[in-house]
Amino acid sequence: MRIAVTGGSGFAGNHLVEKLVLEGHKLKVLVRKTSNTKLLKEQGVELVDGDVRDKKSIEKLVNDADIVYHLAAQFHARSKFELWNVNFHGTENMLEACLNKDLSRFVHVSTIGVTGNIVNPPGNESDSYNPTTHYDLSKCEAEKIVLRYHREYGMPVTVVRPTVLTGPSALHLRLYKGIKSGYFPLIGNMTNLMHPCYIENFLQGITLAAEKRKAIGEIYIIADEKPITWIEFVETIAEVMGVNPPNIRVPISLMKVIAYLFEFKSWMFGGEPFLSKWWIDEVTKTFAYDVAKAKRDLGYNPEISLKEGISRTIDWYRKNGFFK
After folding, report:
1. Rounded to whole angstroms, what are the CA distances from 167 to 65, 258, 307?
2. Upstream peptide bond of 121 is cis (omega within 30 degrees of 0)
3. What is the pLDDT of residues 157-199, one digit of tens each?
4. Residue 228: helix, strand or coil by DSSP?
5. What class does CATH assign to 2-169+195-227+288-303?
6. Which residue ranges make up each domain of the chain?
7. Which residues, listed in sequence order, are joined to residue 48 by a DSSP beta bridge?
8. Residues 8, 212, 216, 205, Cα dihedral to 10°
9. Spatial distance between the Cα atoms of 190 and 280, rounded to a whole number of angstroms
């Protein structure tokens, strides 16, 4: 298969590219000038310089593709305009470039945030849209236009909504280091539900979504077998590392004030904030989902358990010198 990937230099994208290369597919990956392409170059894939906002580079990316995996997204930005430009208009550009191509599938990676806080868990694919952040709103509108291209033009699209992705990367390094040192602050009581998705479970789900004909025009939540509370997640990490679980508790209101100060510093001097209000919201809302539809339609089976995923992540951190 000839496969085009956006967002290939990110956490999920790197792992997806590695899996597809091992399966023998021919890959093109869209990369920006600022992207870290070290791992992609090691995989020997064709790199296409550009951006989802640049129609010429997109055309070069998809001109002979059988499958397109669209993972590119802007999470943190200095303005709502930038989020909207990348997440919505970038997706629209991708769809336009693919419209007259002979694709077998356009897989769009969305987010569970499009349905917001789950009041009566578990949530599922039929829940109403209720985005609560600028990022979630931009991704919500992107998801809608992807589905519209299926309804109006018959484009073979599938939408995948991953939950909280976990696994070997620097993505959650601060969390693990904080727990290891004993200085990770518990925000409120942390008894709200969260739903992790280990990276290998996600890769299984997204590639099945590209293969199964029944998935065309559908939305699938991809997650681990079951949700857990945030405090269970933190305590499991501590247990696997062999350290005492954190016991420093900070009120949510105080953490938001601290996050505001970090965001203001970031706005003034650039760079991503050490702590953000968005992250505070993420760890204090309820995110719990049912993966029955993915199991039924795709044959999805999340094989990696929470403890096994955490153990693999810690081994990776140690192997790569992040901590002993």
Report:
1. 29, 27, 11
2. no
3. 999 999 999 998 877 888 899 899 888 888 888 899 999 999 9
4. strand
5. alpha beta
6. 2-169+195-227+288-303
7. 30
8. -40
9. 11
